[in-house]
Specification:
alpha+beta; Alpha-Beta Plaits; 3 helices; elongated
């Protein structure tokens, strides 16, 4: 990650073989409350441009804090993407099992009872 601060805006250059467009949009969505965010793509990297929505110029400390926060957020969203990809098959199997129709392993081993005296009638019982 390379960055450049000039005329009260931050340009961040991110390699597109490390970060996907989806990761960047998920990450920088949260900055839209305080900054105008523009994400563009070149041949080998993304360019993220952040401009404060207020007219006040940010100081060096504020830019450094922002850059550190962005680095942490990029790590967070990249890790979420990795975990999502690694667990995709397991999640699909869980959903498939949850919605499987008619896969019953026989009748339950317990007797059906009701504490208020309801006695269920089955087709083969009278």
């Amino acid at each position: 990650m390379n960055y450049q601060v000039a005329s009260n805006e931050l340009n961040i250059f991110l390699e597109n073989d490390i970060y996907s467009q989806e990761i960047l949009f998920k990450c920088f969505y949260w900055y839209g409350k305080s900054y105008a965010v523009n994400i563009s793509k070149s041949d080998d990297h993304f360019i993220v441009n952040l401009k404060p929505l207020t007219k006040e110029a940010l100081g060096d400390t504020e830019w450094i804090n922002l850059i550190n926060m962005i680095k942490q957020d990029l790590i967070d969203f990249k890790l979420r993407d990795i975990v999502n990809k690694e667990t995709q098959v397991i999640r699909e199997l869980i959903v498939a099992k949850a919605f499987a129709y008619g896969e019953k392993d026989g009748d339950p081993d317990t007797e059906i009872t009701d504490p208020v005296g309801f006695v269920p009638k089955f087709e083969n019982n009278e």
